[in-house]
Every structure is written in C-alpha cells, then in structure tokens.
Specification:
With 231 residues, the chain is α+β, with helices and mostly antiparallel strands. The protein contains seven helices and eight strands. The chain is 30% helix and 17% strand. A hairpin with a 2-residue loop joins strand 4 and strand 5.
C-alpha cells in the first residue's frame, strides 16, 4: 500500500508544505556516482535485459523510461513464485517477490554499467534495508536480478567499488541474485508515472528522480519516455 494513495487534497497540500522534513525520492543534492570500473562490452544489434528492484516500481520504471537506449521498461515482480505474482499478494511482504522493473536496452546505446550507475545514483536509495522512502517491507528491497553470470559479476564489482569509495554515508544493502523469473505487473501499474504526473505519491517521491536523471545524466536523458502501452 502506497502511503499517499488515499491522501485527500487538502492534507496533501499541507504535507507538501512540510515535505522538506522527509527524504522521499531523490534529493536535490543527489550526485552522480563514478561509473563502474568493470562493464559489459557493447553488442550492437542484440537487445539485452536488466532487472532492478528499488522500492515502488512506479518511480524506477519512470526513470528508466527516460533513458536513451532503453527500448522498454516493464513494472513487475521478481524473486518469488508465479502463483503469488499479483499486487495483492506481493503487498503482504511474504511472497519473496520484490517490486521490480525489467529493462530492455540496446547495449550499443547504453551499457549495463551505465544502467547500474543510474540505478544507484537516482533511481533509489541503496542504503535502505527492506524499505524505500515511505514504503516498508521486503517487497520494497533493493535488489539486482542478474540475467547471467556476466551481469552478476559487474553488479557485484560495482557495489564493492562504491562501498570502497564510501560513496554513501551508510553501507549499500543491495542484493545481487541470479536465476529468478520476472513476472509483469498488472496493466494499471504500467506507465503509472507518465499517466499520473499529479498523483501525490508521484509528485513527492518519483518526479524528483526523473528531474535528477535529466540533471545528472543529460546525455542519457530522453524527454519522451518509452511507454509499455506503445509496445
């Protein structure tokens, strides 16, 4: 359940007036992290898939939909079984699933390492354990679902690199796991940020992430998002 899902308009206005006291979404002082020292080579003509979990999938999807070279970004569930891959079940926090985003990308346009850099820099806070901003539970954990051994190696190396550089005030809690299946979420969750830009939760938590993507990664930013409904 998203914290602001049923927040009345007047209460929301008051909440926004005090929002500086909270750390929901990307902060104004976010900085671009160093790129991974280890990356996967460009492979022209062959689309690849990366799966990231970092809190509510609305914002993570919204960020990657604005990245040049991304061909599709689908909200869904990863880490659990097929028969529990529904929002009502996942919201209980006991299915093993994490709200995730499957990113299909052209590695000749954007590398896996660049996606990792964006994921750690603006898409979420990798130091929050089993929560993200206002949302708590294992379904909101920080996790990378590697699609092969090469992705696993690059992701683990990047986490070690960032921890060694003390890129964050706290240790990174992001897990890296391989061999799990991704299940697309319900249609009403797809393209949610683009379709609902004035939704209170989106305004506070997720639009700042897209703004930080544009600010920190101007060469990777695309103004028109790639949407699931247009696939």
């Amino acid at each position: 359940m998203k914290l602001l899902k049923f927040l009345p308009a007047l209460a929301f206005a008051a909440f926004v007036g005090q929002s500086s006291a909270f750390s929901f979404g990307a902060s104004d002082d976010a900085v671009m992290l160093a790129p991974p020292a280890l990356d996967l080579p460009a492979n022209a003509g062959n689309l690849q898939t990366a799966v990231f979990a970092g809190g509510c999938f609305w914002g993570v999807q919204g960020v990657f939909q604005h990245v040049q070279g991304v061909k599709n970004a689908v909200s869904g569930y990863d880490g659990g079984a097929a028969n529990t891959a529904q929002y009502e079940s996942v919201s209980n926090g006991d299915t093993g699933h994490a709200e995730s985003v499957s990113v299909t990308y052209d590695p000749s346009k954007v590398s896996y390492g660049k996606l990792l850099q964006i994921y750690f820099s603006v898409a979420h806070n990798p130091t929050e354990l089993n929560r993200q901003g206002p949302d708590s539970g294992t379904q909101y954990r920080s996790e990378i679902f590697a699609q092969n051994a090469e992705q696993q190696k690059v992701a683990q190396a990047y986490i070690a690199q960032l921890d060694a550089a003390k890129a964050f005030d706290k240790p990174i809690v992001t897990k890296v796991e391989m061999g799990k299946a991704f299940y697309p979420a319900e249609s009403y969750h797809q393209d949610f940020l683009t379709e609902n830009p004035s939704y209170p939760y989106i305004v506070i938590n997720d639009l700042p992430k897209v703004a930080q993507l544009k600010k920190l990664f101007p060469d990777q930013y695309r103004a028109e998002p790639v949407l699931v409904k247009n696939q």
